[in-house]
Every structure is written in C-alpha cells, then in structure tokens.
Design brief:
- There is one protein chain.
- The protein has six helices and six strands, in the order αββββαββαααα.
- The protein is an alpha+beta fold.
- The strands form three sheets. A two-stranded antiparallel ribbon has the order 1-2.
- Helix 5 crosses helix 6.
- The longest helix is centred in the last third of the chain and has 12 residues.
- It starts with a helix and ends in a 9-residue tail after the last helix.
- The relative contact order is 0.10.
- The mean pLDDT is 88.
Length: 160
C-alpha cells in the first residue's frame, strides 16, 4: 500500500526522480502514513530507500549524492553509479553539506548576531587597542565571542 501511494507522487526523469507530493520549506518531500500521531509523517527520500533496500539502520540517515532534496531516486545512473541516495551518519551529513558549500555561515546562519561589517570593525578596533570587553559590550556579544572572532575560530573565513 505504501509503495503504491509513494509511486503516485514520483515524476521519473532522466536524472533525479522528483517527489511531486507535499514538500517542506527546505524542499524535502513528505508523506503521511495511514495512521496519525507521532511518526505518521515520513520523509519521501527515506521511504524511497526503505522500499528499495529495507529499513534504515538505527543511527543512520538517508543522504543525497545529487544534493536535490526532492529527489527519491534509488537506482544508479551514469553520474551516481551507487544511486542518488546513500546511508550515512550525522557526521557524514555534516561533512557532505560542508563539502558542497551548503553550510550556513556568517550572516546566513540563523543564530548570527553580527554582520560581516561588524566583524571587520571588531578586528579593526582591536588592532588599535580596544579591549575585548569593550568590543563585546559595544557589539552586544560575549567577550568569548570577541575572542573567537579575533582568533579566527569564528568568522575565520572572512578576511578584512
């Protein structure tokens, strides 16, 4: 039953197979089990994996080689001989996201309190003698955050 419902919402193309049903804001497809409650909403790419390969082992996620969230293609093709989807850990997912340049950083990060210009001003003011504490107060962040900015562990990719 789940397989029949699933297949009704897949547009098979020469590359990715696109999920045409409900999608989340981030583009990942979703479908609902017949029952409601916890666990009733399923990610389409996970369902695709389970229909093709069986249950996803505990502690693993279904990741995309193709970097296309609505893709549900499990079969190999010329570009990805092992298939568009693969199993990996949270760390694998993080590394894949970084390697593909999709990690939010700087102002794009949801928790960012500073802009690139703020970071440049912090560094410039420190170079002429401002204290970390005064910079923290002026920019509304912790002294530790200022220290990380100056050391390059935060915003290290940003050059003045």
């Amino acid at each position: 039953m789940l397989g029949e419902t699933f297949r009704k919402h897949v547009a098979i193309g020469p590359g990715c197979w696109e999920w045409t049903g409900c999608r989340r804001k981030d583009g990942y497809g979703e479908m609902r089990r017949a029952r409601s409650g916890p666990g009733s909403i399923l990610r389409a790419h996970r369902v695709a994996w389970e229909l093709a390969h069986g249950a996803v082992p505990e502690g693993l996620d279904v990741l995309h080689h193709c970097d296309n969230p609505p893709c549900v293609k499990t079969e190999p093709d010329e570009r990805w001989p092992e298939g568009h989807l693969w199993l990996g850990t949270d760390l694998d997912n993080h590394r894949d996201r970084v390697a593909k340049g999709r990690s939010a950083r700087g102002e794009q990060h949801g928790a960012a309190r500073l802009t690139e210009d703020d970071v440049r001003r912090i560094r410039a003011r420190r170079s002429v003698g401002a204290t970390q504490l005064s910079l923290a107060v002026d920019f509304g962040v912790s002294r530790g955050t200022v220290g990380h900015i100056l050391a390059g562990t935060y915003w290290g990719w940003l050059r003045s």
